[in-house]
Structure formats: C-alpha cells, structure tokens
Specification:
Layout lengths: L3 H17 L12 E9 L5 E9 L2 E8 L2 E5 L3 H14 L1 H4 L7 H16 L22 H22 L3 H14 L8 H8 L4 H20 L15 H9 L4 H7 L5 H23 L10 H14 L14
Length: 319
Amino acid sequence: MYNREIKEAIVNHSISVLLENNLMTQADFSTLGVSMGYIFTQENGDIEALFKVTFSDKKYFFAVQKGKLMCVNIDDAMFEQTVAYMKQNHPCLLNEDLPETKLQKKRREKNNKIVSKQKISTADKLMSRWDDDKITLKDKEEICKRMLACFQVIQIACDIGKGNYQEGLDYFKPKLEELGLMDMLNSKEQRIIDGIYSQQDAIDLDWAYEAYWSLCWAMGLVKDISDAGEICDCNKAITIASSCNSVDDLVKKCKLRSKEEILDMLDLYFRYNWAVNDAKVNPNASIGKLNPSIVIERRRGLEWLVSDIADWYEIEMRA
C-alpha cells in the first residue's frame, strides 16, 4: 500500500480504460475518487490489487492479477468482504516483523505518533528508508556553499516574478562569482543564470526558500522545522545569508546537527510526503495543516544532505 508509483500507475491505467470505452468523460474528473482495497507485490514480482473508482453517480471495481488490469463485476458488499478477507489471511499482513534496524524502528514509531497527533494519515508499517550505518552526511563547507548559491538565485527568481529579471541578475550574479559559487549551481539555477529558464523554473526557485530553510535547520541556525504548515521566516532566511561575506563566514556560524537528528527529521518529512501523495488517490486520507509545497521542498533539502547526488532536482523522492 505504501508505493505511490505503483498505486498511481494502476489507477491511471484504469482511468484510461474507462475513457477509451466511453464510460467516463473529462468532465467526470471533478468528482473522481479512488478507494484502494488492497495492493501487494508477490515474491515473483506480480502485483495484486483491488480498488474502486467512483465519479458522478457511477462506480467501477478493478482488480490487478498476474500483470493484468481487469474491470470486475462486484458490488460494495463483495468489495468490503474481499478486502476484509485479505487483511485477515494474507501472510504479508499477518507478519509483524519488518526488516529494519532498532534505530529505524524507533524512528518509525516516534514519527508515526507525531504524524497521528497532527491528524495526518499515516501507515504504521511504513518503514524508515534510511539505515544510519549506510548514510554519510555532506560536509559543512559543501552545505554552506549550497545554501549561499541557492539563496542568491532565489533572489533572482523573486525578481523574475516582479518583472525585474535583468536587474536581479546584474546584482546577484556578481555575488555568486565573488563567493566562488558558479560551479555549485544545479540545473534549474543554471538556467536562471543563463536566461533560458521556464516559468516553472522561476516558480520552483521561489519555493526553494523552503529547501534552503531545511539546510539552515540542519546547520543549527533554525530551531525547528517540524511544522510543515507555515512557510519559513523569510526575514531570518535573508539575514542568515546576507550577513556572510564569504563561505567561511557561514561555516563559522554553523554547527551541523547529528546524523540521527537529521534522519529523524527526514523520516518525518517522508511520512508527511506519503500522506500528501496518499490523499491524491484516497478520498478518506487527511493531510492536516500540511502545505504540500513546503513538504516537498524541505524534504528535497534534507534528502540532498544524505545523498551523493549534487543536483537536488535529480534526487528521486519516492513516497
């Protein structure tokens, strides 16, 4: 149930079937709902699933078996009975043991309690993806360079929104060069600097304030970021970067948090992200006060800290 890509793939396939057979129209999308009964992967890789697609006053039931999607002739009672049977009898649901370390289990249980307290949908057995012993954090200097490079380009992106691109570029590009950060730019940032950006690039860089904010937290410059319903303190975010005349200035102000603390926060945002994605296909899911854009951007920054990938837009953030 926890793999968003699989769920989205089979749901999208079912919608395509309905559209191709004139059982559904584009106008029905406004009332579309999906109820996932069960989904699991067998040892040989085959997916099995049962789910219901509803829209307007219509409902269709779909099953996936041996790699094939089928529209099945059942009603709500049969659907619920089948789901109940699977929950009571399928071996993977009866097995209480998860292949996780003690730290991962502690992290999972602690963060599930935090998520539940915020009235956010959670999955008790959604494993933490990160094994502490296999993770190496990026060093302080690289993190500080990423923070400062990101901050300068964010300001240009903000100027794009105000119609002042050239003015912003003329002011902040020399700062990037002075700080020696031109080789630290990621793909979107480079397009902004080169003037070949899309409107989406500019929007994404505006939201990158939240990724930058998560790095500020990791470096001990911000007390807490666990509230993903409120945007970052922009004035403080600006002060942190603008008060530094060099990378060394920022390095001296920072104290990198422990690996365990960073992975705890990353796992919490992983669960936030799972809830946000689950709500896309589950009408009964709740995301509480979460802001999905804040969730994804702060997770992006935290993921980058533990990844060996330089461009954080290339990191796959599965949930």
